[in-house]
Hints:
This protein has 473 residues and is an alpha/beta fold. It contains 18 helices and 13 strands.
Amino acid sequence: xxxxxxxxxxxxxxxxxxxxxxxxxxxxxxxxxxxxxxxxxxxxxxxxxxxxxxxxxxxxxxxxxxxxxxxxxxxxxxxxxxxxxxxxxxxxxxxxxxxxxxxxxxxxxxxxxxxxxxxxxxxxxxxxxxxxxxxxxxxxxxxxxxxxxxxxxxxxxxxxxxxxxxxxxxxxxxxxxxxxxxxxxxxxxxxxxxxxxxxxxxxxxxxxxxxxxxxxxxxxxxxxxxxxxxxxxxxxxxxxxxxxxxxxxxxxxxxxxxxxxxxxxxxxxxxxxxxxxxxxxxxxxxxxxxxxxxxxxxxxxxxxxxxxxxxxxxxxxxxxxxxxxxxxxxxxxxxxxxxxxxxxxxxxxxxxxxxxxxxxxxxxxxxxxxxxxxxxxxxxxxxxxxxxxxxxxxxxxxxxxxxxxxxxxxxxxxxxxxxxxxxxxxxxxxxxxxxxxxxxxxxxxxxxxxxxxxxxxxxxxxxxxxxxxxxxx
Length: 473
Ligand code: LMR
């Protein structure tokens, strides 16, 4: 019966985690899968989530099937988190949100829905994108193509080329976009670039499908939802699949959602009906515990601020590790431009290391990256960042990160004499003062090396705080 079944080569990300777990070398470093680890290298259990779970258990409620669309309180909170509580699209009943089995479950439900209702459309994903996007949409029967995105020469964005490609797409094409913290590159559109993209999406009648797996890991919960809110403000119809795996550190609970922002309440009701039907055909209904966790954490007046602070501290720690890796690489590799580590956002950066170089890092130094050269910054900590930088720099061939070998730019212009930071260097708006102070102390001697990055500037308050932080001896 199954003689013809082909062996599965394995998933590149999960297979690497297995290899890492099996590696007996004590000094191994896991920068492979997109999971946030704390300073001690542990997977955190967030106190806000623990408290939510304690309340759920204390209530000792029955465990019926959830409806196909999931927990009602969870769905309402998700829509508010994405769009802002007062968004007119919510008040008008134009948002159809279902709780899903992680955001992967949401992406898949959305893909199956779209194959039914836009059967002739093709899907366009960024080059590169998360490995699983292509196979998910192909699995739903779509042709998947890519639009230009990452600029390997600069470590930035090929925005003009991206726009040009999107302008040429057939109407009703589906465009998969990373709302923030692009996976795998860490290269995001700025607010101005989203504003420039929206008329193209509208004029070409394209269907944006946002993947928002890292809300709060870039610049903040609100900032990272800029694209969602801008698309809704512009009156576009779109999908957004979002995840709490990383932001609540609940990976295995499979907490996610899919939202369709529609043209009218009547349309949203019909879309909701068909999403229910799609869910029923795949997994019938989502998990009750997952829905309750999300509903409690987002909806409770005590737990919500606690969670936001926990998320801010994860974000700050990632930023501190970006700065630390950048500082060490800049010191070890004078003349190399590694400024992209600072302008990229979220868990990932795209190093430009080749597959062979990644293999050498793993085999010779027990530093695990996926073979595309993506590094998960959230796997770094104070104990392993130096070793990781040295492993990358130990061989000059390995050091050709990002393919950028141009001499360092003149970094003096626009840099604050007090802080060594450019006024345009992006820092998270919600970054706590302790975290920023820690970042400043760790990196101040090397801050003057940093090149200005694109995007939002430091707030005067943060600049003032950094300028009063004592310098390292
Ligand atoms: C990743 O990209 O590493 C994460 O999103 C985990 C996954 O499922 O691939």
